[in-house]
Amino acid sequence: MIGLVVACGMVVGLGSVLVVRGALTAPVRLSDALAALDRRSVVIEAPPAGLEGFGERAQRRLKLPLSAAQQRLLFMQGRSVGDFFIEKLVWTVAGALLPLFWSMGQLILGNPPGLLPLGLGLALAGAGYFVADIRLRAGAEQERRAATDGIHTFFDLVVLERLANSSAAQATANAAAISDAPLFRRITAGLERARMEQTQPWDELHRIADEWNVPELADFADVMRLEEQGAALAEVLQARVKELRDAHLAHQRTAAQEATEGMALWMTLPALILGITFVTPALLTLVNS
């Protein structure tokens, strides 16, 4: 009898696993191909496997919200949708389990934990779900600075390619293919799309500049467009690249100066507190007298 019960339990467990597996199986994906035809910023890649694949399938099946801004930030950071939702799952589970560990400790000590850990676990699980969103937004500024630094390196590489007598489009493609950074991969994908459609790549560079919030790339595309049309603008390109780099360095110096001035406040706080400790006894004496 016990063996029959165990066998029935195993069958039920196996059936549950198969149901969950079937529900999370990735269907045929036409969205990437349609997005490519629509000229959106989607790079067609193989479906991720492992935990990333599980996170991506769970997001599609459960229809978890993912905004366009979050997708852009994920692409800028070189992360997948599955990785983002696996991070959400980890933080959610961690928030839910923390009160459970505390309850186990209380039970070991002989103290009934009550219903407080249950409510606290639900609250921490809800808060943990949004930790990944906060971390994603927190890294946006850092990624933007990295993209700006990378685009100036890209300009220098294009200038070197042009000095080697490469055409404007070829110099841009060769410079973008040197690195596998997210911005360089996006430029490479845009140039390849323009080549396959037999169109000029400069409109695609304008689109990338809007997506990544890098206006310097739009200026670069305008100069390269004029140069490919026959204007001898090699020296103009070098001068424009130098102007963009000088402007970037000036912005960096301004940001560093602001950070230094912000630190001055915290440097004066210890001296202020020390002065208050010297003055407080005298003030208390005057008040009590």
TrEMBL record:
Q: Which domain of life is it from?
A: Bacteria
Please report the name of this protein according to its UniProt entry.
Answer: Uncharacterized protein
Q: From which source organism is this entry?
A: Tessaracoccus flavus
